Amino acid sequence: MRLHVGCAMWSLKSWQGRFIPASGTDRLRSYAGWCNAVEGNTTFYATPTLATVSGWAAQAPADFRFVLKLPREVTHGAALSDISGMSEFLRVIEPLGPRIHALWVQLPGSFGPGDLPALARFLRLLPDSFRYAVEVRDPAFFHHPRHLEDLLGTVGAEWVPFDTTEFFRTPPTSDAERDAWLKKPRMPLRTDALTDRPIIRYLGRDATGRTVEGWRKWVPIVAGWLREGRSPTFFVHTPDNADAPELCRRFHDEVRALVPDLEPLPPPPPASSLEPEGPPTLF
Fold first, then answer.
1. What pLDDT does 280 receive?
2. SS3 label, residue 142
3. Which stretches does UniProt call biased (Pro residues) (predicted)?
4. How far is it, in rounded angstroms, from Cα 221 to Cα 167?
5. Is residue 37 within 8 Å of 6, Cβ to Cβ?
6. Rounded to whole angstroms, how far apart are CA atoms 109 and 207?
7. In CATH terms, is domain 36-159 a member of 3.30.360.10?
8. Is 194:149 a contact under the CB 8 Å cutoff?
9. What is the mean pLDDT of each run of 10 residues along the chain (283 residues)?
10. CB 218 within 8 Å of CB 163
11. Global pTM?
12. How far is CA 268 from the centre of its chain?
């Protein structure tokens, strides 16, 4: 029984000196002391080098999990019709081994139910050595989910919902919220799991109270999945993400209050370990 929690990144300027070091290259290692999973959004924009991924593997504990987004050239540029870039992507992520929880197929809002045959062909061409998770952004899928559910069921893939209902419940009150208001998708709520590894992306507000209020519906759902023998992953987003690692641990604690057999997360690293050694220098 395991609950993975994490953020959209492992390094953020506002985290420096609080969750991760202010300098150095071991930020993933420090982040992994707070959370046990991360969204691999960077792989959407560019395929990393093998050396870069080997560095990630060296910093991430064996029980840490990556949900890696497929390159945008595949999911957006080629609309799933050209998978030539996948072979290089799969080659460079090999050092992560079992730390790869799932490969994440995020599709654009222009991808609708009529495009499902393309998704079916694409998923059947992918190697079965990985687990796959699909995120769609056309609301039509949520109103009539059966066709997508049946397709994902044939290949054992998960449907990743992005819960933005709390975020859009009231107008924004900060610059970060106003920016997210324009960029984040307004998605219908979905709380069903298709596999033994459900993945939830949740967007709260800058105010901690609002973020916690919005995830309260998820706490018993995730607890129920754990009791069923599933291994869920819950990603916490807020517009500024300033407190996201701490919020992840709070969500884990709330679920564990309902499922006492769930192993607690290890204590986070002490703040003293995040401070640079010695005085700053010019060289």
1. 43
2. helix
3. 263-283
4. 19
5. yes
6. 28
7. no
8. yes
9. 95 94 88 97 91 96 96 84 84 96 95 95 92 96 96 97 97 97 95 97 97 98 98 98 98 98 92 55 37
10. yes
11. 0.94
12. 20
pLDDT tens readout for residues 66-96:
999 999 888 887 778 877 778 899 999 999 9
What average pLDDT does the structure give for the chain? 93
Find the radius of gyration of the CA atoms of the chain.
19
**What does the pLDDT read at residue 214?**
98
Label the pairing between strands 4-7 and 162-163: unpaired
What one-character-per-residue DSSP string does 100-124 give?
A: EEEEEEE--TT--GGGHHHHHHHHH
Between CA 206 and CA 199 the distance in angstroms is: 22
Amino acid at 181: W
Domain ranges of the chain: 36-159, 161-265
Q: Which helix (H) or strand (E) holds 234?
A: strand 233-237
User: Where is 202: in which H helix or E strand?
Assistant: strand 199-203
Strand order in the sheet with 100-106: 158-159, 132-135, 100-106, 65-69, 37-40, 4-7, 233-237, 199-203, 162-163
Counting Cα atoms < 13 Å in the Cβ hemisphere of 163 gives 21
Spell out the residues 6+ positions from residue 201 whose beta carbon is closer than 8 angstroms to its own. 39, 135, 160, 161, 162, 163, 235, 237
pLDDT of residue 25: 78
Q: Is 66 helix (H, G, I), strand (E, B) or coil?
A: strand
Q: At what angle do helices 146-155 and 116-125 cross, to 10 degrees?
A: 10
* Cβ-based neighbour number of residue 51 at 10 Å: 9
Task: Determine the Cα–Cα distance for residues 265 and 188; give it in Å rounded to an integer.
Answer: 31
CA distance 99 to 88: 18
Number of other CB atoms surrounding residue 210 within 10 Å? 18
Is 7 in a helix, a strand, or coil? strand
Q: Which of 88, 89, 100, 91 is nearest to 64 (CA)?
A: 100
